[in-house]
Automatic annotation (TrEMBL):
Residues 409-448 form the Orn/Lys/Arg decarboxylase C-terminal domain. The keyword Cell cycle does not apply. Keywords: Decarboxylase, Lyase, Pyridoxal phosphate. PANTHER family: ARGININE DECARBOXYLASE. Its EC number is 4.1.1.19. One of its GO terms (molecular function) is arginine decarboxylase activity. Transmembrane segments: none annotated. Its cofactor is pyridoxal 5'-phosphate. SUPFAM superfamilies: PLP-dependent transferases. It comes from Filifactor alocis (strain ATCC 35896 / CCUG 47790 / D40 B5). The gene is speA. Pfam families: OKR_DC_1, OKR_DC_1_C. This is Arginine 2-monooxygenase.
Amino acid sequence: MHIKMILEKLQFENKNKIPMHMPGHKRNLSLSGEATYLSKLAADCDITEIDGFDDLHDADGILKDSMKRASYLWSCEETHYLVNGSTVGILSGIYGATKPGDTILVARNCHKSVYHAIEVFGLNPIYFLPEIDELTGSCAEVSYETVEKLLFRYPEIKLVLITSPTYEGIVTDIEKIVSVAHQKNIPVMIDEAHGSHLGFGYQFPNNAIQMGADIVVHSLHKTLPSLTQTAAIHRNSNRISKERLQNAISIFETSSPSYLLLASIDGCVELMIREKEKLFLNWRNRLNSFKKRIEKMQNLVLLENEIKKNRQVLYDDSKIVISCKNTNLTGIELMELLRKKYHIELEMASIDYVVAMTGMGDTDVSMEKFAEALLEIDESCEKRNFEQKSFAQFTIPRKFMNIRDIALCNSGFVTLEKLCSENVSAEYIWAYPPGIPLIVPGEHFDDVLISNMIHYQKSGISLKSSTGRFPNEICVVELLKNDRI
Ligand SMILES: Cc1ncc(COP(=O)(O)O)c(C=O)c1O
């Protein structure tokens, strides 16, 4: 029997596929025509901190210089390179900005790493829902009024944490949020994992650093030309202690950072400094031509225009969100059709829409093939005019106990069919992507949430759970008879 090796699978199966997903380099080794750092990153550069090279945890040489250049590029106090993704940036940022037991204000559409930070550091979260985008059913921007009201109601809040842009490209205008938080000297942290390309013009919105956030996390690999796992955390004010942040990073980040990944970040930063005008202009022109090409679609809908028609919002149009709500296709079916017939791989499918990610690594040819495929599918699919595919409703489940107290409880398993509103979850359940938990340990299931999970499951959206037993079994707290429900 021939055992397929991972490298073989990577080299052959990916060869003729068009990547409309992260990472932003799109496996394009030349980007602007010439071979870049991306073509040189191989085992002959694979070291960690040996003599003569700098120590990421105590940078004083080539890494310090490179991170300084990055802080100029993003115009912030300081930038730290990360080789464990935004995940480690989020853990470090929250740890660096809080003390155990602190209360933090958290938009509920946060990535699971935020909940892990809350769990591990014993924080007291006050969750709130951002605005809900009616077209996708997903969480959208955070309203300033919501934050202002909650900061007034809970004066003990020590940190405000918001995700922007969302997976669907909606950007929160945080300027007023920052100003109301700063009046109380409360720092604002933005998970801008999907927005490291923002703030450089070319019709992309400003980034969170420009809008005054105190701490910002970027997954460079998602939207810029840098290898997977590369990220950065930017400290943008003295409301966050330099020393506490440095200490936090050294706790959570590997002690053997890969120089392949560091060279990739360095190369990406240099490319941005030297060639960003040309690269952004090419990206913008490709995006505009693509959008013009698909204007003819009759059944599939580019959601950007609809979202902007609905209300005033900042939008990152590097994300191409296509709704198939008025057709006989579900999001999963559309994604599969693009994969199987057109060899185009998307970033994500939801119940009635799909998300494609563009980047500097796209080419005119790949964008044209994507447009052609959408036009062909648009012509061949059937128009339907009913609402049955509508999305699941977002709710914040009722809290029964703190996430970290779950470790002190007995737990058992129930099936999805037997799950009821008396059950308290002992695990996280989330859809990946985007990795936003539907429920976190210590929260009650409720009827809306249970029917949402069944709806997702039936629609082919795969839900995952911490124990890995979903959908067969769900880990719940074993409550004693006199426990409060
Ligand atoms: C909003 C958001 N934040 C953080 C992360 C984690 O980023 P990384 O994969 O770089 O660790 C993700 C990953 O998908 C994300 O979508």
